[in-house]
Amino acid sequence: MSEFVTFIEDNIWAPIVAGVALLVIFGVIFWYCRLRSRRGDYAPVPGLAVTDYLDHEANTRMSTEKEAASLNCQYYLRSSPQYQLRQQLGEIGSRLQKYWFVVKLSSRDDQMMAMQPWNKDCAFPPTRTMQQTVKNVFTLATHPYVAPVTDIDFLEDQSKVVFMQPLFVKGSLKDLIHNANPIREWAYKYRTPGTPLPIRRIAQLGRQILEGMLFLRSKEIPYGHLHSGNVLIDNNVCRITGYENALFAYKSRLYPLLRGMLKQDKEAADVLSFGHVVYEMATGAELDISKPDVSHMVSRCPNEIIEIMAFIFHNQESRFPSLSEVVAMPFFAAAPVRELDMFRPPPVPVTPQMKELLRSVRSGQAVRTKTKRRVAETSLTSSVPSSPAAAASPAPAAAQAPYTPLYATPTPTPAPTPAPTPARPVQQQPARSMSASSVTSQSSERSALLGQIHSGASLRPTVTNDRSGPRL
Predict the structure, then answer these.
(1) What is the pLDDT of residue 411?
(2) How far apart are CA 363 and CA 382, in angstroms?
(3) Within 10 Å of residue 148's Cβ, how many Cβ atoms?
(4) Mean pLDDT of the chain
(5) Phi and psi angles of residue 343, each rounded to the nearest 5 degrees, phi first
(6) Buried b (16+ CB within 10 A) or exposed e, 31-63
(7) pLDDT at 432
(8) How confident is the model at residue 357 (pLDDT cuts 50, 70, 90)?
(9) Distance separating alpha carbons of residues 325 and 267, to the nearest angstrom
(10) Residue 293 C-alpha from the chain's centroid
(11) What confidence tier does 458 reach under pLDDT thresholds 50, 70, 90?
(12) What are the φ and ψ backbone dihedral angles of 163, each rounded to 5 degrees?
């Protein structure tokens, strides 16, 4: 200890340097903590807790997006005077960037207008011709258990699409399960668990949903977007909707859960989604996994529902059943379908354009327009001659005329260039005949001349008659 005191007395500068170093270290630590506590340039809202602050931010964002959607709606209705805006709704659905409005049509009741961005993965372009073809496809979906799409419109300048449907004031099946207000925001009206439906009600609504999906499949209209929010209630009758999303290649709400199971069978999206809807009707809560566990269902579902879940998700044949096999189960087959007994579908002609559109949507490939088909046929015809005579003879001028695309603006035909004036024919002098003796003498003279050049002999100058100068 005495040695340490002696060292301090001899080196008084050491404690001073150590104190300054500690002050610098504490200053750096304090500055760093202060810098991290700023969290960028965000300033806390005074008087709000963390949860209240997040709700405040979400409400601000929703208000801004709602104002932008209102402006887009007013801009669209200016060009569509047959509709009048009645009310703008909140985010009543689960799909992001999709907005709902209640509009009035003079010749019909109130309509539900939905506006959402155009999907870049859509199989067809947003042209007026394709718009009419899609309208014709929607006329096929006329069924008592299918909600109609009354009108659509493509907004090319805004990259949006507009759908019109009848207004169902009772809301959706999810609203029925949760006893919720249909026009309230999706994020708030389903926070609490719903009430399970009676067994007979599940059988009746399930049979109607199955019949609607079977009808769409009979018309070759793809679906895959079934969930309880896409089942509308109309006078105690289920009417499925959302098939317009399949035509425009939007992802379904249950796709993240079913993606792994759909790798085994892509066509099983409808029956798997139906299993999720039946589970929600029986328990009052959504199924948050791809398929239910049997042990979990025993304590929550009736025996009839357990049998349906096992048949759909845990089939012993290692495959998913079809919709026809599910509707043939005694639980659903015994349910009455009075609306279907009185239904007489109107005849709707199916044009080649409608067939091509549905084929492209199902395969996920772009629609082959008339332009592409004509170009392919023309190139095939021009590359493969039909006969040897046709390959030898040139094609006529009419077959080589340019083709004007169906969806493109026609290019102006260039004016024909005048034919060049034929030049005056030059009179050629008749060639003089040369005998064999003259040819032989010229070749011998040429050989003698070349021999003199190689030997280095001097050549005599040739006398020429120059007539290039002008005459004076």
Answers:
(1) 40
(2) 29
(3) 15
(4) 79
(5) -85, 130
(6) eeeeeeeeeeeeeeeeeeeeeeeeeeeeeeeee
(7) 43
(8) very high
(9) 14
(10) 34
(11) low
(12) -115, 145
Per-residue confidence (pLDDT) for residue 160, from 0 to 100:
92
CA–CA separation, 275 vs 320, rounded Å?
A: 11
367-398 burial string, b = 16+ CB within 10 Å, else e? Answer: bebeeeeeeeeeeeeeeeeeeeeeeeeeeeee
Given a contact cutoff of 8 angstroms between Cβ atoms, the answer to whether 365 and 123 are in contact is: yes
Helix, strand, coil share of the chain (percent; to 5): 45, 10, 45
Of residues 412 and 345, the one with the higher pLDDT is 345
Query: pLDDT per residue over 183-207, tens digit each?
Result: 999 988 999 889 999 999 999 999 9
pLDDT of residue 15: 77
CB neighbours (10 Å) of residue 236? Answer: 11
How many whole angstroms separate alpha carbon 69 and alpha carbon 107?
26
Cβ contact 150:108 at 8 Å? yes
96 vs 109: CA distance, rounded Å: 27
Q: Across-strand partners of 151?
A: 164
Dihedral sign of CA atoms 161, 166, 167, 173 in order: negative
| 152-171 pLDDT, tens digit each | 999 988 899 999 999 999 99
The residues, ordered by sequence, that sit 6+ positions from 94 with a Cβ below 8 Å of its Cβ are 186, 229, 253
Rounded CA separation 143/345 (Å): 7
Q: Any residues with CB less than 8 A from the CB of 367 and at least 6 apart, and which? A: 123, 124, 125, 130, 356, 357, 360
